[in-house]
Design brief:
about 30% helix, single chain, 11 strands, globular
């Protein structure tokens, strides 16, 4: 039996993000990929694994061809926003088993520019076949599903709309420290509550921004770490889980599949939630952050509201800095944002985040981080624990 190799993230990058009106999704893929390889200091000839989803008829074949790659290991798993944590876990397993030496994960989207140019509408349809056929006729939109879940949590546990608004306020506070964030002007709880209603109880600022942008992450086997220009960030453990497609099959609106993926990731990493120093959590809506914090074990079920209302999520002075770049609520959200979580987690562990850098008491960067992506309407979850080299 071949010994399993350790796996490290050695290259991360974003493409141009925010308002990008003059690029195609393919171009954003390529830009992010080139930057990630340059970040690692490795040549693309080393890359023999490739993972991508969301673009092309034969993803990742088309994107790999566009990038000039001929991989011998591929993955196109598509489970919404958690796709990238799940793909990264698959890639790490393949590298550890000796099936690949270096795997590149890439994503790019012009979601904002496409709407502005009339290439697509603001509401993306998930189709009307399968279990969807029983919900679509009633106008049950994606945001409405999240709003229903949030309302259930409020009823069950007394969570307040002000507590949910605090998630948006603290995300914006973190974004204010990130020069690349799309929105940086501080906001207040009152401003969140007074915004236009989108889906009760969510007003506009409870919802993520719509942006353009791409990201890339390069994972390699341990023997290639010495050739890199960056410090390695090790994959310590991961977990994945799916819950439901139809809302009627969701056992409990107050529990996300992160309750399973998080438990598995922490067990496999051999660490406890209390040891995590920075968390990057999918935040298409404020409720996602709150309930995922509960399900990952940072607080008890039903305690998320009280947990977030005391500034704990802030880079400056927070006990558990969350979405340190400003998250999908303020920094950028071009669609399936899970890869951006991994990029920010790695940058934090390498101490490269400038004004928004999380620091320990001795002023050193954090040693442990978690990235947890969510797909669909809490349909899937992928969680990965990362450790500094």
């Amino acid at each position: 039996m071949v010994a399993r190799r350790k796996v490290a993230v050695v290259g991360v990058a974003l493409s141009d993000c925010g308002r990008v009106d003059d690029a195609t999704p393919y171009a954003l893929h390529a830009q992010a990929a080139r930057r990630a390889l340059a970040d690692a200091g490795l040549d693309r000839s080393l890359v023999d694994g490739f993972a991508s989803a969301g673009l092309g008829t034969l993803a990742p074949v088309e994107v790999a061809e566009y990038l000039g790659l001929r991989p011998t290991w591929v993955d196109s798993t598509s489970v919404g926003g958690s796709t990238w944590e799940v793909m990264a876990a698959h890639a790490a397993d393949a590298i550890a088993a000796g099936h690949a030496r270096a795997v590149l994960l890439v994503y790019g989207s012009t979601a904002r520019a496409d709407v502005r140019a009339g290439r697509r509408t603001g509401t993306l349809s998930f189709g009307t076949r399968g279990p969807m056929q029983f919900e679509v006729p009633y106008g049950h939109t994606l945001i409405a599903k999240y709003a229903m879940a949030a309302r259930r949590h409020m009823i069950e546990y007394g969570t307040t709309i002000e507590q949910l608004a605090e998630v948006a306020v603290q995300a914006r506070a973190n974004a204010a420290l990130n020069p690349e964030a799309m929105f940086r002007t501080p906001i207040t709880v009152d401003e969140v509550l007074s915004g236009p209603m989108i889906a009760d109880p969510f007003t506009k600022l409870h919802c993520c921004v719509r942006s353009d942008g791409g990201a890339a992450v390069l994972l390699v086997a341990e023997e290639y770490v010495r050739d890199c220009r960056t410090s390695p960030v090790w994959v310590l453990g991961s977990g994945e889980s799916v819950s439901h497609a139809a809302m009627s099959e969701w056992p409990d609106f107050t529990v996300s599949p992160a309750a399973v993926s998080g438990r598995l990731a922490f067990e496999r990493a051999g660490v406890r939630p209390a040891e995590i120093e920075v968390a990057e959590i999918y935040d298409a809506f404020t409720y996602m952050t709150l309930v995922t914090l509960e399900d990952l074990g940072f607080c008890g079920k039903g305690e998320g509201g009280a947990f977030v209302e005391k500034g704990r999520l802030r880079v400056e002075g927070g006990e558990l800095p969350v979405n340190t770049d400003g998250g999908g609520l303020s920094a950028q959200h071009p669609g399936m944002r899970g890869l951006f979580l991994l990029v920010e987690a790695v940058r934090q562990l390498r101490g490269e985040c400038g004004e928004r850098q999380v620091r320990r008491r001795d002023d050193s960067p954090p040693r442990l981080a978690v990235a947890s992506g969510t797909g669909g309407w809490f349909c899937s979850s992928g969680t990965m624990v990362l450790g500094a080299g």
